[in-house]
Amino acid sequence: MRYSFVFLFVLLLTSCDYFKVKKTSSEAILKEELETFNWNDVDEYPSFSVCDSVIGKDEKTRCFQETITSNITGFLQDEKIVVTQDIEDTIQLAFQVSKMGELMLTNAKIDSLTLKEIPNIKSLLDKSLEALPKIYSAIKRGQQVTTEFDLPIIISVD
């Protein structure tokens, strides 16, 4: 009987460890959250007011890109561009939309023949971006965020 009391007493003392609550620090929670956070994805892509009626993230993304593409190509088609050679080029444009909804062209990969034939192509691209309607910035976790994206534009001049 005495051994059973000792055994129960030891069991009681060791079982108290199972009821301890582990304290987690705010730093540990933050570190865990940052590791699982996807930095390359946003909840809502940047958009224009014409894209408000579109439902779905992929459709809004497509609407945003099509609006920029149609605006740039429309602007370039209205310009009187004179070339000595036919040009078929795909220009890779890198954009940044700020938290405030400001669109900025950060990089443009343009073929050397296109630059030779249309030396003012970069200024034309900048002017076409100025004519865009108001942009609503991307949203991630309820906050407006800066986003970057690439967009190919096909240039065809005969």
Structure notes:
By secondary structure, the protein is α+β, with helices and mostly antiparallel strands. It contains five helices and seven strands, in the order H-H-E-H-E-E-H-H-E-E-E-E. Helix 3 packs across helix 5. It starts with a helix and ends with a strand.
Features:
alpha+beta, three-stranded antiparallel sheet, 40% helix
- The count of β-strands is 7
How far apart are the termini?
A: 104 Å
Helical element count?
A: 5
Average pLDDT reading? 82
Element string (H = helix, E = strand) = HHEHEEHHEEEE
Envelope shape = elongated
Strand residues, percent: 15-25%
Unreliable runs: none
Structural class: alpha+beta
Provide a brief overview of the structure.
The protein has 158 residues and is of the alpha+beta class. It has helices at 2-15, 26-36, 57-78, 112-117, 121-130, and strands at 47-48, 87-97, 103-109, 135-136, 138-140, 143-145, 147-157.
Question: How do the helices and strands line up, and which of them pair or pack?
Answer:
Elements: H1 2-15, H2 26-36, E1 47-48, H3 57-78, E2 87-97, E3 103-109, H4 112-117, H5 121-130, E4 135-136, E5 138-140, E6 143-145, E7 147-157
Antiparallel strand pairs: 1-4, 2-3, 2-7, 5-6
Helix pairs in contact: 3-5
